[in-house]
Amino acid sequence: MHNMETREKIQFKPETVAEINRIISQFPQGKQKSALLRILHIAQHEFGNWLSVEVMDYIAEFLNIKPIEVYEVASFYSMYNLNPVGKVVLEVCHTGPCCLVGAEKMIKHIEQTLNIKPGETTSDGMFTLKTVECLGACGYGPMLQIGEDYHEKLTIEKLDNLLNVIKNKNN
Amino acid sequence: MGRKILLEKTGIENINTYEVYRREGGYSAVEKALKKMTPEEVVEEVKKSGLRGRGGAGFPAGMKWSFIAKPEGVPRYLLCNADESEPGTFKDRFLMEKIPHLLIEGMILSSYALGCNTSYIYIRGEYMWILRILEKALEEARQNGWLGKNILKSGYDLEIYVSPGAGAYICGEETALIESLEGKRGNPRMKPPFPAVKGLWQSPTVVNNVETISSVVSIVNNGGEQYASIGLGKSTGTKLISACGNIRKPGVYEIELGISVEEFLYSDEYCGGINNGKRLKACIPGGSSVPILPHYLVTKTANGEQRLMTYESLADGGFATGSMLGSGGFIVFDEDQCIVRNTWNFSRFYHHESCGQCSPCREGTGWMDKVLKRIEYGKGNMHDIDLLVSISKNIEGNTICPLGDAAAWPVASAIRHFREEFEWHIKEPVKCLETNYGLVKETELEA
Ligand SMILES: Cc1cc2nc3c(=O)[nH]c(=O)nc-3n(C[C@H](O)[C@H](O)[C@H](O)COP(=O)(O)O)c2cc1C
Ligand code: SF4
Ligand code: FES
Hints:
The structure holds two protein chains of two kinds.
Chain A: H1 14-24, H2 36-46, H3 53-63, H4 67-74, E1 88-93, H5 96-100, H6 103-114, E2 127-132, E3 144-146, E4 149-151, H7 156-169
Parallel strand pairs in A: 1-2
Antiparallel strand pairs in A: 1-3, 3-4
Helix pairs in contact in A: 2-3, 3-4
Chain B: H1 18-23, H2 28-36, H3 39-49, H4 61-66, E1 77-82, H5 91-98, H6 100-114, E2 118-123, H7 128-143, E3 148-151, E4 156-164, H8 174-181, E5 205-209, H9 210-222, H10 224-228, E6 231-232, E7 235-236, E8 238-245, E9 251-256, H11 261-266, E10 280-284, E11 293-294, H12 311-314, H13 318-321, E12 329-334, H14 339-353, H15 359-376, H16 383-395, H17 403-427, H18 429-436
Parallel strand pairs in B: 1-2, 1-5, 2-4, 8-12
Antiparallel strand pairs in B: 3-4, 6-7, 8-9, 10-11, 10-12
């Protein structure tokens, strides 16, 4: 996870700044706040998978809006993590259609394999398990999202494989 | 084989690229509109087509467009709703992934018709990879002169941008979408003023679904009348149906409106019947928000007529014995599924997604979630069933936005049609388990 003890360290990479400026330019003058949701996604990605108060303050400064305007948005949307999470977040859909085809079994299996409950992180800081609502993959369930990737039509074997691949890649 | 309009070309290799899309006749509708038609004429064709909004409510698109206010010197906006978060719905994603230029072409036509010079596609944050597909396609369109200043030397300027949400079902509601696009919490606005008068940044705004906008391409190419000749009655054209649950072939299908539910559910061209040789128990034909139908009302209406895949036929019988076409999220339950558990699951969803602005929705969805959980886990009592009915009645119609209704209807309809199952859950949990997990007596269910 990224190191964030000091305020100075919170700074977007130059190429990120360019990307953010491109996004802001898509909105009329004075409406730069419209870029906020996308910037929060970028920030979360760049600063260790979650949004600390310091990061949010930095974004407020960047967009020239009040910090509260950032906090209230960050706390409304479920994709933003306001607390530290593991390196890899397993977001399993647990809405009706996925449950019709076995989502609950997949969640139980992850719980048992990694010894964590939804909302928890493994002690080595590798995995966080999150149950989420319908991700628009209902016909391809059970499914889970990791970062930007959808993993669909899960079976226990596929799941075990996936977890092993991730573990090996990160060791 | 039914007629296809939206998915006609999705089988062509590399149709997601600009070159192939163009080679296959893509962007010819833009040429036609910008060179030969006034914006009013485009609106007129869409009116003639009878095209109805594909996002859920089914409001006629041409009529919606004609409501947009046109104050002098104020920009107007078209917003494409790609939030797609209604459980059971995954069709817009298919369209955007497979043939992104179709949506962009539709956006150009619709923006031109409405007189918008900047338009946005608001896409759910989880579809970030599709946002990237769209941005790439937009860049290709811009480089080939379909976007930017003075398009085809017509004097018309247009830019289209994509902007993501971040995980909130409510942002699919049009005024919440506008708030979210402005960089705020997705709290729906009070209406009036309607977006057509005061929408994005207080300017006149039209919000349309991905599929609605994509359908405009064929309407401009072939004329509104031709589109209206497809389908049945006021359900004109084709509709994408995303089918899921316990069927053999889940996926996205384009149907000509008017085919029978029976054909859609059982033929090999579409769902292919119930999976694993089981029997049908129930079906939610239009996304989680619409009423559930028990097996005996799925392929036939209460009058014994064949049920068709149209706005009208699916709603036949009102809420007593009908449902809605909604978003086209077709969710099928086999005989082993537990209605109580699923109803609780959906209540939990709406509770989680309520924005919390109005008390009937905020509190009511919370109570329904809690009471249903209690029943599901064998701790309910018989009064709970009527309590649920009463809560749902108190939410319905008493909220700022329709999420309240969307949360109330599934509960009310599940109790209406499956009251016995709720009672078993409370009084005879063993019977309930037997019935719901494969130990059904032959006579109790028939496909
Ligand atoms: C809670 C709620 C969620 C909605 N979600 C969506 C959605 O994900 N996509 C969509 O197109 N419309 C959604 N709608 C409907 C929109 O408010 C709006 O009616 C629609 O985008 C209009 O487009 P159309 O006329 O082309 O259907 C939702 C409505 C409500 C009340
Ligand atoms: S009905 Fe529910 S979601 Fe809609 S505004 Fe009220 S509290 Fe928010
Ligand atoms: S219910 Fe899981 S993706 Fe829709």
